[in-house]
Predict the 3D structure of the following.
Amino acid sequence: MTGAAYPNWDAVYRDNVTWVYRLMYGKVGNQPDAEDLTAEVFMTALRPLRVSATVPEVRKYLRMTARTVLASYWKDRMGRQVTSIEEDVPEVIEPESFASDAPDKVRQLLHRLPDNYRRILELRFLQAFSVREAASEMGVSVANAKVLQYRALRMAAQSGEEATS
Amino acid sequence: MSDRIVRRFADRLLRGQSTERARPDDFEAEQMKTAIELRAARLGSDAPREDFVSDLHRRLAAEMADDQTPVDHPRWAPRRRQVVIGGSVAAASAAAGLVVGRNLLAPTPTQPAAEPSTQGELEPTAGTWRPVGASVDLPEGGALSFDLGSVNGFVHRADAKLEAVSGVCTHQGCKLWLDAPESRLRCPCHSTSFSLEGATVTHQLPVAPPPLPKFQVREINGVIEVFAPTKSV
């Protein structure tokens, strides 16, 4: 196998930190945890990395490390894996291929919901509205907006389950 | 309230806070997953902060420099970070086809790392002694292969002692073949070869695959037996 290798750990870090963070963020949905997990991936992975490993090998290794780090994070927090990183990746690995298909998936998911459910999820999750703002935007009470949000999430989860099974 | 776990999770998620410990059931976990996907789909939310990226760079630099100072501990002694996820890191490395070797910053020794890991003994939970051949078929210096269904391997006699090793390559599980003239066990997949004792001799992989596990082996009444998993009927 041929392929360029990274000159040092610094190059490994600069080239890969962004996609590792994005991958983690897509799996946990919040910045503090995504940062901790990204740090853990590099702390764990850089030291044992071989000097002669090629760029694709390094990326694959980082991804496998991220997979393990995420699994143990969920095991600790929830006693189970809420989200996971797929093991099988295409042979040719470019950072771009790590980008998630989340936006598409979310669009389809929202599309399957009744209007008011879709609206509350869009406002709260995608457009960063507070409950109060979302309630006033939709012309419902705050309590109502809260109930709507949780029901919408339940239905979205249900339809997501059905779509994948 | 039954959906308290999910509500609390979603509230924190929407506030950008870290995840708290909880014990959700299947459906609750599915809702959490959906919430994460929705939250992560927000435009521009998944770029790392500049401060975080440069701060982590500093921490890594310190950590790697630390590693370069003269060491009075073995390089692979577990360190704080490695302890956290313990053996699973090794599993991830192995799965990625990369096993711990020298690190990127270490002054480059030209010698390859020694044995990547110790040679384990195959110890089935439920095992029996199973015949694999007759003593007369295995002269001094010779080797023979055996296949017991659940396991296969090679047994050889050296210095009047018997030794048996697994016949499955530790890299990706290809079946080894016996190159008798060379006294090597060769892998058809990636040109890896092992000694009859199970040590990794040659390989073209980024890192040396671990040595082959050994079997317990004995000789009774002219029959060579290997301790192998009990046959499932």
Q: What stands out?
A: The helical segments of chain A are 9-28, 31-46, 55-78, 102-111, 115-126, 131-138, 142-164. Residues 9-98 of chain A form one domain.
